[in-house]
Amino acid sequence: MASRFNVASACGAAALVLALGATGCSHADTPERQSSEQLPTTASVLAAASEADWRGVDPGHTLYMDFADGARVVIELAPGFAPRHAANIQALVRAGWFDGALITRSQDNYVAQWGRPDDVEAGDRGEALDHVPAEFDRALDGLGWTSLEDGDVYAPQVGWVDGFPAARDPATGRAWLAHCYGMVGAGRGMAADSSDGSQLYAVTGHSPRHLDRNITVVGRVLSGIEHLSALPRGTGALGFYEEPGQRVPITRVVMAADLPASERLGLQVLRTDTETFEQLIRARRHRNEDWFIDPVGRVELCNVPLPVRTHGG
Amino acid sequence: MASRFNVASACGAAALVLALGATGCSHADTPERQSSEQLPTTASVLAAASEADWRGVDPGHTLYMDFADGARVVIELAPGFAPRHAANIQALVRAGWFDGALITRSQDNYVAQWGRPDDVEAGDRGEALDHVPAEFDRALDGLGWTSLEDGDVYAPQVGWVDGFPAARDPATGRAWLAHCYGMVGAGRGMAADSSDGSQLYAVTGHSPRHLDRNITVVGRVLSGIEHLSALPRGTGALGFYEEPGQRVPITRVVMAADLPASERLGLQVLRTDTETFEQLIRARRHRNEDWFIDPVGRVELCNVPLPVRTHGG
């Protein structure tokens, strides 16, 4: 008997509803449904967003990490949380530290990590400092905040700050970035202040929130995370590649600001301090897409998508 | 200046502490530390586990999914939660339905999915039924339960049943399997009862717990998840591969019980109804490994590892 499932169309009957926008696959825009249902979905909220709901990404805080096969990973730094690390990473990028650096580690359900291991040629550090303080958290005073009221296992309060998932504790007056999928941090040794931004990692598995406040989070991947998450896993302890030849060379890392405007990608992120984003949270909480039978009515911090688009897209 | 990080050893200073057992990298087994610290870590709890803390995996409920390059994914079915789907999957496996089936979809931070799309030769369904009921949840009566007391965003109560992560609601008297990383479910269309086990998916990203009670979970990957999670992402909507040639052929799927005993892997899973597992939960909650500076003191359901070993290993 033939399969009753049709996957020739990605929107066919067998298609599991996806994590981010079910763009093009939502049934909410079918005319006969529109007349009877107006419950927002991720796709309908994004379709209705205005230009003002998006913000440009500061090219001075954005780096492009390129690979020989043309793959590009774009990372937005978070100087609001890790100003010293962000500045050091910028200095390292501008000195060429990451040009010819290597992805040294891919641990399943955890992180991919890159830098310059001791057994390769030392890179130029330029104006980068040899030591920067740990930036595990910051004062919550003065921080814009969009709250998620659905609770959290790891922190008293969670929400978003300018497009980044974050947590805070009013009792201590501190806030910190949350280790959601795609977040980028600065590898460190045993000492709290042993990271300097010369070695970075990105989260590629279930969000390891136990790392929060134990390591400096420096930003997040805006696009191209699949070039890190789909890497072959290292077979050494902690997912390190055991053979030098398994490491993946990084061709070049540049700050977007150092490229001519014509070579910048013009990415925008959905602002998280808007009514549109509140609608997106609700759409993710209630999952009004037709496919869902028993929408749970709650959503976890790391399951709310943070949409990115090309300017004007 | 040379990097100060040493990644020649995976246990070196720059190694981020890992998700599962920091086996071989934990400092807890260093003699001088043992005398001063006895706080349990994941590694020390596992090292102290007895033979009785492990249970064998029933070969009648275990399937081996093999690929041409020698990769193998091992899945343990959960007939305690999805008996009708488990039986249908067993029938499909024995009819050869999955021999020559294809991985059709790899969506970043979500799922990999496999089956027989309409545009390939129909497989033999053997004794498999054309229709099985949805098995989204079950009565919690009679279910062994190990509770996690750290809370959960999605469910009133969470914990483990015989090695599977689960949730329950005393108010409704129902329990269900939780969509943690590596869990396996049965793809369905729009109708609740449109899954029959002939198309399966595995979770390869941040746990999509909003799928709980919306689709039938049939088991979990015991080993080889990296062969699914590291697949190139499909570029079509929902991560479907756009070109037939991008799909990954599955050479053969067999029930372990149908192999001679000498060809079975003899896997064991750590029992979740033991004091050892309670210690593991505590070790994950408090993260006593030296690397951690600010252990959070709480842990989320999907961040507690469910260790698997080869018998006697």
Helix proportion range of chain A: 10-25%
Greatest chain-chain interface? A-B, 94 and 94 residues
Spans of chain A with pLDDT under 50 lasting ≥5 residues?
1-36
- In quaternary terms, these chains amount to homodimer
Coarse morphology of chain A: globular
Topology of this protein?
The structure is a homodimer of 313-residue chains.
Chain A: H1 31-34, H2 42-48, E1 54-56, E2 62-66, E3 72-77, H3 83-95, E4 102-106, E5 111-115, E6 138-139, E7 146-148, E8 157-161, E9 164-169, E10 174-177, E11 183-186, E12 200-203, E13 216-223, H4 226-229, E14 248-249, E15 252-255, E16 267-270, H5 275-286, E17 308-310
Antiparallel strand pairs in A: 1-16, 2-3, 2-15, 3-13, 4-5, 4-14, 5-12, 6-10, 7-8, 8-9, 9-10, 11-12, 11-13, 16-17
Helix pairs in contact in A: 2-5
